[in-house]
Amino acid sequence: MEKLKIKMKNISKIFYTGEMETHALKDISFDIYEGDYISISGPSGCGKSTLLSLLGLLAPPSSGQYLIENEDVSNLTLTEAATIRNRKIGFVFQQFNLIDELSVVDNVALPLKYQTPPVPLNEARDRAIKCLNRVDLGHRVDHKPNQLSGGQQQRVAIARALIADPAILLVDEPTGNLDSKNGDVVMDMLEQLNKDGTTICMVTHDARYADMAHRQLHLLDGEIVEQKQNVMEAV
Ligand SMILES: Nc1ncnc2c1ncn2[C@@H]1O[C@H](COP(=O)(O)OP(=O)(O)O)[C@@H](O)[C@H]1O
Ligand SMILES: [Mg+2]
């Protein structure tokens, strides 16, 4: 049987601003298994980013239960959340968030600096090069990010997200800053990584890209209104 990576059960998120309550997520339940590729889509304001920030332990749920690899992470302190985030979550954002002063390989190795105990420099570099090979950028390790195309920069960001061997890769609008050609390259790369075993949960408003995932969650007003599974994957 496939290994359960993520379990969200009856998750709600309410934002309180002044007099107002915003019910950003209402009673969300779903599971993510090892090797899954899930997309989350829906109109602006439906709760996509909120859901991704909960999944990534950037914010706590207001109620409900959240498990990562069977560990209950529903009610963590900020420090506990940061520790688990570093070990188990890889993030890819619309903005690549690379550091222009560092080489590509140093950008990718950076998260290992914040691990305890710290990873020795040689090992960090070797691991970073392995991740860059996975995104077909083994020939660009000593370049600076601004010497690369947008699509290549996003692939560097993906390599960085993979460096700590996360339980899941969380991806928010990965093609939002790319032209369609570079966007396609990045999406093909994510598909290849998933085929090689990486578990992916991606937010996108692009229907064509959402359909590349095995399973599509559609959000509306903070609720899952539809779940679709690609026919081929359901066999
Ligand atoms: N920090 C916050 N404080 C108050 N309201 C918020 C906050 N973040 C998001 N919201 C509200 O929660 C709802 C969902 O937002 P969001 O998750 O950003 O939607 P999406 O990413 O689908 O566009 C919206 O009504 C938004 O205004
Ligand atoms: Mg958003």
UniProtKB/TrEMBL annotation:
One of its GO terms (cellular component) is transmembrane transporter complex. One of its GO terms (molecular function) is ATP binding. The keyword Cell inner membrane does not apply. Residues 6-235 form the ABC transporter domain. Keywords: ATP-binding, Nucleotide-binding, Transport. Belongs to the ABC transporter superfamily. Macrolide exporter (TC 3.A.1.122) family. This is ABC transporter ATP-binding protein. It comes from Pseudoalteromonas byunsanensis.
